[in-house]
Amino acid sequence: MDTTLDAQVMNDRIKLPFIFDANQMLKEYLELKLNDFEYYNVIQLRAPAHIVDPSLPSPPPATDYADGSWTDWLDTDEMHASLYIKSIINSFKEITTVTLVRLLRLAPHSEVKEHTDPTLGLEVEKSVIRLTIPILQSKDVVFYLNDKSVDMQPGECWYLKLTDAHRVVNSGTTERVNLTIDMVPNENLRMLINESL
Hints:
The chain has helices at residues 3-10, 22-31, 49-52, 77-80, 83-93, 187-195; strands at residues 13-19, 40-48, 73-75, 98-106, 110-115, 129-136, 141-145, 148-150, 156-160, 166-170, 176-183. It is an alpha+beta fold. It has one domain: B-lactam Antibiotic, Isopenicillin N Synthase, Chain (Jelly Rolls). The protein has a 7-stranded antiparallel sheet with strand order 1-9-6-11-4-2-3. Strands 5-10-7-8 form a 4-stranded antiparallel sheet, with no helix packed on it. Mean pLDDT is 92; it is low at 1-9.
């Protein structure tokens, strides 16, 4: 038995020691009143500064966009309207630099095809990582990472190694909603993740 391979697979998903109020996050999400969508919808809560405030100049072209340093980042009006979610994001800002923050909605009877995100892993030298907090989830939603399901419950906070192959299947009749938070993996964050193994 290859224990090294088992350890690598196990470490592709790490539950962090936080539990957030999924009901309060769901309430704030519902108050944002999404526009029409087909199967997948995104609400940006933190985005590049020139997108949030069009009066700001666009950043110059960059040779590498992976770590988010190519631009400044600002909270959106939707973030300012979501006080509990904003408090969660502010708690992570105390640990490291937070870049992109989004609410991701997947419609019933929909799927996200298998793919990889080449810059979203702790092992990538210049990158951000993404933490995922499920808000609305049912037994009919399955997140597959390396062909194994990840049992994420509402309010939990997960680091997933998204440089590996992953996909999402929602075979149920209700939507799935996650909060995703991209951040720079500094020493404090790496220590938090490693201590959660």
